[in-house]
Amino acid sequence: MAAKAPGRWMVVAVPYLWLLVLFLVPFLIVFKISLSQDAIAQPPYEPVFDLAAGWDAFKEAFSQLSFENYSYVLSWDNEFIEAYGSSLWIAGISTLLLLIVGYPIAYGMARAPKSIRPTLLMLVILPFWTSFLIRVYAWIGILSPEGLLNQLLFALGLIDEPLQILATDTAVYIGIVYSYLPFMILPLYSALEKMDETLLEAAADLGCPPIAAFWKITWPLSLPGVLAGCLLCFIPAVGEFVIPDLLGGSDTLMIGKVLWTEFSVNRSWTVSSAVAVLLLLVLVVPIVFYQNVQAKEMEGR
Amino acid sequence: MSTGVTEKTQTTIGGIRRKFAPWTDPAAVPLIRYENVSKRFGEFVAVDNLSLDIYEREFFALLGPSGCGKTTLMRMLAGFEDPTEGRITLAGQDLVGMPPYKRQTNMMFQSYALFPHMSVWENIAFGLKQDRMEKGAIDARVDEMLKLVKLEKFAKRKPHQLSGGQRQRVALARSLAKAPKVLLLDEPLGALDKKLREETQFELMDLQMKLGMTFLIVTHDQEEAMTVADRIAVMNHGKLVQVAPPAVIYEQPNSRYVADFVGDVNILEAKIEAVAPGNVSLYTSVGGGAKLSIAQNVEAKVGDSAFVAIRPEKVRVDLEPPAWQEANCLRGEVWDIGYLGDLSIYHVELEGGVRIKAAKPNLTRMVERPITWEDKVWVSWLPDSGVVLTS
């Protein structure tokens, strides 16, 4: 037993070390930057902790840290709060759309003959083989006023003038739903596939028609998958930057885009760090919720 | 639940109690009728042009090996499969094409199929809620069912918090709650251990009598079928081989298949020498050649080959030639003895290499047995113990 102990310790230590070095430390650096002030310097903020300058200099630097950036970001005069709200709204609507689109696909896959299920699964994952950026760019070609969609609608005689989809929130929804669909389908599929189909036979046998049986049996039993899929889509969608930047219009307000502007255009490392830390706080709530649900589900087994 | 009554009785107009056997009554109207029913899955014929009548208040067992079509036959009654050809009626109503949720049958599934996200109470109430019964009536009925299966204390538990036996009871209560015209039981006791299974068999019988319902059970366990059923249908390759009460299936099987499937049996090849009313004389070449005599009416010609089936418990083993009869005596040597505690099974190798099994109850404590390995012995049986089979 004694010989085993160091090996065991290693197994636990490696992931913790990984998280510490590659997640916690960078986060603390970002957090520290968010408490600093902008400066025309290299790096572009102050104070800078210089351990070589001695304890007094460290204390002096520490006293310069302040929450000023947070009060700036959280002030109603600036657009940040609006951007957070709008991000949550867009991510929420997108997640709902993803669920509506993804559920029937996952259901169809889970009820397909066993022999073709791996192929269907492969087809869902297949888009990942092409760069995400290229796939989002492709939507510009489809949605633009002279794009494929408008050409098609013209050819069919359904419209007289091009639909303005690109550079609107609609395009952002389309982009998010398209890009995140596999993340919705996979957890749903795994939940639905596990379900014993005799349960539906039992429901029918007890006098429950198929549609009612779906809501009474299939849906509640797929809820863990629904939650996992929704959170898996919602969390990254809130901070999404590429899709609103490429497909959205100038009035599409999302926090990822705001953060990018703050960082690259305004060159304020400190404010963008504060935005990032607050974004993390906003997302911690659903993440903790997700983990609770998972823990509960594990208990249930 | 105690089994007070062991034999089902029905009262006739004269008030005379007689055995429950509606299938012998030409005036009785069957509750369930399968009429020339076939079911094919692609090339595979699961049920082959089968007709069967099942009567009200009957406990009917479909018995056969896996793949013989017994489950398909039951699932067609529940509505999960539709017959390819033929008609199925329940109480005169044509069932073909009617979806399962409109049928007045309820099924207890082999896997129990309890809804994992619902409590015991909700599981049992599920069917009642579908009927839009009022709240008070549902409460009363669920409580009644819980009491029936003795699970009152477990109403709030989820299925995964119950033992296998308790789950089985919940499944039973759920399928009984709607008081269906027929209760279908698909291998209901397969997941229970032997002791619990035997107990539950008697409880099922008791319940069936108490509720006066029609039960249709599918099983591959012949002992289970024999214990619970009023009639057994032995199936093979989608066809009914024999439909009869358990004692008839056991004592008068109509074919080698039935004799072999239900219980243990010795089968000897023989040639018919003489046919008389109530008696057949045969000759078998095994055991040094012997005359056989079986008290049975057989439609066969002299010279036909036939099989004689004899159950191990009806075979005697003696060291001396039996003086009381001439026929049905064969010579051999004890090849092996299986000691089961209550019984000893003697495997006797007859001259010519055929082995015959004889079961002897161990009536006294035995340390030294009078007959032992490699003894030269005589096996014999009475003329009314064996059965002549022509197929």
UniProtKB/TrEMBL annotation, chain A:
GO terms for biological process: transmembrane transport. It is found in: Cell membrane. GO terms for cellular component: plasma membrane. Keywords: Cell membrane, Membrane, Transmembrane, Transmembrane helix, Transport. The chain crosses the membrane at residues 12-35, 88-108, 120-140, 171-192, 221-243, 269-290. The keyword Signal does not apply. It is a multi-pass membrane protein. Belongs to the binding-protein-dependent transport system permease family. CysTW subfamily. This is Putrescine ABC transporter permease. The lineage of its organism: Bacteria, Pseudomonadati, Pseudomonadota, Alphaproteobacteria, Hyphomicrobiales.
From TrEMBL, chain B:
Belongs to the ABC transporter superfamily. Spermidine/putrescine importer (TC 3.A.1.11.1) family. This is Spermidine/putrescine import ATP-binding protein PotA. Its EC number is 7.6.2.11. Part of the ABC transporter complex PotABCD involved in spermidine/putrescine import. Responsible for energy coupling to the transport system. It comes from Ancylobacter defluvii. InterPro entries: AAA+_ATPase (IPR003593), ABC_SmlMolc_Importer (IPR050093), ABC_transporter-like_ATP-bd (IPR003439), ABC_transporter-like_CS (IPR017871), Mo/tungstate-bd_C_term_dom (IPR008995), NA-bd_OB-fold (IPR012340), P-loop_NTPase (IPR027417), PotA-like (IPR005893). The gene is potG. Keywords: ATP-binding, Cell inner membrane, Cell membrane, Membrane, Nucleotide-binding, Translocase, Transport. Residues 32-262 form the ABC transporter domain.
